[in-house]
Fold these 3 entries.
Entry 1:
Amino acid sequence: MKLIKSKSNDRFQVWNLDKEIESTQVRSNLMRDLGLLDNIPKNFLTASNIATIPRLVKTHNVLTDIPRGTRPQTLDEDSAGEVNIKVPRFAATASILPADLKGKIEIDDFLNPKNDKITLASIASVMNPKVQRIKETIENTWETALFNTLRTGVAYAPNGTIVNEVGQPYDFYDIFGGTRQTFTVDALDPDADVESQIEAARAWIQDNLGQGTVVGDFVALCGTTFFTALSKHPEVRDAIKTVGGGLAKRLLIDGKPSQYGREYRQFEYGGVVFIEDRFHMTGSDASQAIIIAKDATDMVRAYYATPEDKFDLVNSTAKESYVFRYDNLEQRNEQIVIDGETLFLFALTRPNAVQRLELGDAPTPPVTGD
């Protein structure tokens, strides 16, 4: 797209803004807005890219009565240990070429023309948005990885770069002795007691969480089909009609509005905040919801590692992400390369805190005679 701008002295300046003006894809920030991404415990590894995750599976013993002189019951022991998982690597690259500068002016001069003076684009002005795009991409990856770990219970590595000893993805429900449960909510049946069905899910999580304390901060990330059906159920509609249920509202984190200012369709019912997630809960997930005990202790832990191929980073403490600049590759003075990396693992260490709700089928209408 060539844009031509006329100046007061009838001179013309021509420049190309194909790369500067783009349509931006809508991206989700729900994990950050909920406080899940920022508030999880973070472990920064040193001199290793292997995350050592402590594992404790507690057993529950119950005694039965026995006559005196009989051997007492032997108690089952807790299963303690650790699991070692390699931290996967995620990387992106961008470059600056002479063509990115030649004949270009600063974008501010185009958006806010003040006089005839033209400021030509510089390496710094071209580099800044490229670096910012890499940083945004890394944050998008964290968001997607955390949600997928919560949704599937599996370590996020979509290309299979980390697998267990039998070549399968690391499943945190198996590692930590968790159980996947799916609870049906008959929101399409106007006569169904959906509050009791929701309470069954909350009660199961509480009873099987294994942390010894009561949790009460439940959220459900809902597909649109599930969210719409539940919000229209007569029992739910009557309960929330006075507070504008289903309207777009800012999320509350620790009782305060989310600092990011984004709004979601949401309502609170049955001790759970139901939030419509149009970004993640799509396809077959549209008729389901992920219910999370958000205040469960150490539900997720994050592990970060350092790049393995940089002398300056050997034996250093990891950071969440890195951006590297390489000038004059092969001394040809033709290209500047910008690489971004993040090496991270989100481990679902208390998997029973995350379970599924699914929308039940609509009841079959009764057959009536002619």
Entry 2:
Amino acid sequence: MSFIYNLIVFLLLISSIYEFSTNSKPNKTWFKTIVVIMIFTAGLAYALSPDWFPYWRAFEDVAITPFADLKELSDYWDMEYGYILLNKLVSSLGLGYATFTLLIAAIALYLKTQTIYRYGGYVFLAMLMYTVPTYFFEEHVHVRQGLANAIMFFSIRFIIERKFWKFFLCFVIAFYFHKAVIAFLFAYWIVKIPFNNFMIISAVLASILSYVLGLSQAIDGLFRILPFGVGETYIDYANEFTEKSLLGDVVKVLTIIAILLFNKQVVAKDNLFVYFRNIYIFGVVIYFFFGEGIFAARLPVFFTGYIVFVVPRMVMALRDTPTYKNLVYSMFLIYTIMLYVHFYNVWGDKSGFGRYTTVFSTENYGFFQSN
């Protein structure tokens, strides 16, 4: 991995250990400083993945396409209309692709990190768990998904406050950036399910059994005919394959076990924990239900990403029982470090993460439109 990514992870790791060991309130200025570094790192990155080229070409095409023809261009590039429209708004101001990538990184990270600071419990642990690996993928590679996920992160406050129409507005906007967000609409009601340990175990085991018995394949036809372009997106994803990481399975099992062990104790101390717990559990159920393939990776992430709230809030709620608190914190900190090492070994040499370059190293595009 390039120096800048090692630096970001190191700063978050040291900050997390300090916050945990001192039980001190996170320094907001220091938090914002790290976020700014992350924004510029992602926003100024150049050619980090194969997705970079089509996104750049789409931006160039959008710049010369009238507003009236954007829907047709959206279909051509197989990119949601909201994302194409944002491209057009930026290019219409005479700004270039470098400005666009910096802007979307700033929007996504602002929405996500503000939510993490507000609800993250041990904030720097939450940031570290978000960074490895979500930051690398959503703010560098799957940027449409990253924007959609950022909007839904922001919407969690409206779920908690039971303001449906504000939540629904966020959902609609997010849908126009990535259709895979469709299932998150149910989060508004999922948070109210009174999960106990029996229900949690039953739901997870049922999802695994359904996959083994082929039930997930049985409903494949239903997903293919979903309206609003969701069916087409599902078909595209169903024809791709994504290898699942063993660590991805392990952390989900460990998190469910931790929830089962400390559920009552944490809920008694933290009345907001159930919101994040329920969302995460639903993501795990979806993850094991689909079993494999890219749809199993893309759809659940809108739910499983809430591990960045579940674990730090759990650790915070266990602060009066140091043994349990230290155990849970150490377990997930070690997991996160192992995941970063795994990411380093798998992606460091295969992508631009191992040879980070910025827009300043290329003449292909800049911050303003070239004539």
Entry 3:
Amino acid sequence: MLDYVVHHAKILLRPDKYLPELGSVTEGGPAQSPATFVMICPPGYRSSKPNASSTIRLGYCHAFARLGIRYKLTTALELASVLESVPNPFVFLSVYDYEIMDRQTCKNLRNVPHFVWAEASRKSLLSVYAGYGRKPRQVRTVSEYANRRAKESGPGFVWGTCTQRGLEHFSDWHDTGIPLISLPLACDDERYYPEFGSEKFKGCEMAFVGGYWANKAIQFDKYLRPYEKKLTIFGHSPWPYSGYKGLLNEADERVLYMNARLSPAISEPHVGLTGDIVERVFKVAGSGGVAITDVAPKYYYDIFSPDEILIPETLEHYHELVERALTDDAFNAKYRAAGIKAVLERHTYVHRARTVLEKLGLTRFVSAAV
């Protein structure tokens, strides 16, 4: 309860810092849609900052619009009023949204179809980062009361971005009676696609776009630092790498992935335990680029074959694959073609949106024209 009070106090004292910045476009899709996909944007969300928090959420919004369903962006604090104002709402929530949601809205959700993005148990996450010298206070995990409220709200299902076998680490959701499913991240193919003919970034050997912080640096030092002289890096936070180039225009990200020889798709350290695969691997391949993953083969093999994405078995194997992708033109071209084919066939947000509708029993709302 103390955590709950602290969260609300922070928001009241510094709303400019904690409330999402939704931007000028907060809804889209067919105006006459029979249903509304309501996307909850968390504290810290910035529409102008294309990080995972925004690209994942907008990817789902674009997908539902493609299926003929209108979408609406809002916050946990404004959810109650939105639910009263749109037809047949169904809601995307994260367990973290329950940390700031009021009790009445939580109760109201019992009558509204919704699904909740969960995370591996605190015990599992702390066990991973303890191995890297991280103390519990240095690892962000969801509070117990947020998990409890999420369960009480009666979601149609909860999901993790891991593959099916990674769900064994979601012990907070075992034996609850609430369906727990694997729903990996995907590619927003309205945003990430090949721009054939563009010469920008030609000659770039290796590319990476993303933020730099302590937990990720554990992986970066292992997978990226050996290639510092070959790397071109863009991101909102400064990198202690010589190839850091600052910010990247949103429309240029896909071109960078397409024209770079290789783009490492590095996850946070807990990928090896939970299979929590980042969106980057789907974005790179969907843009026509060549993606190489970190070493967590059993999880990547759940969703890709080794002929579609470069999946190293060991760190030594990773370095071998990097070298071949950089020097062997035929090998490189093979993975470009196979990667984008796999993404378009199985791993776009439209595929994920269809799964959501099926699990919630809402497929009747898909436009007959789709």
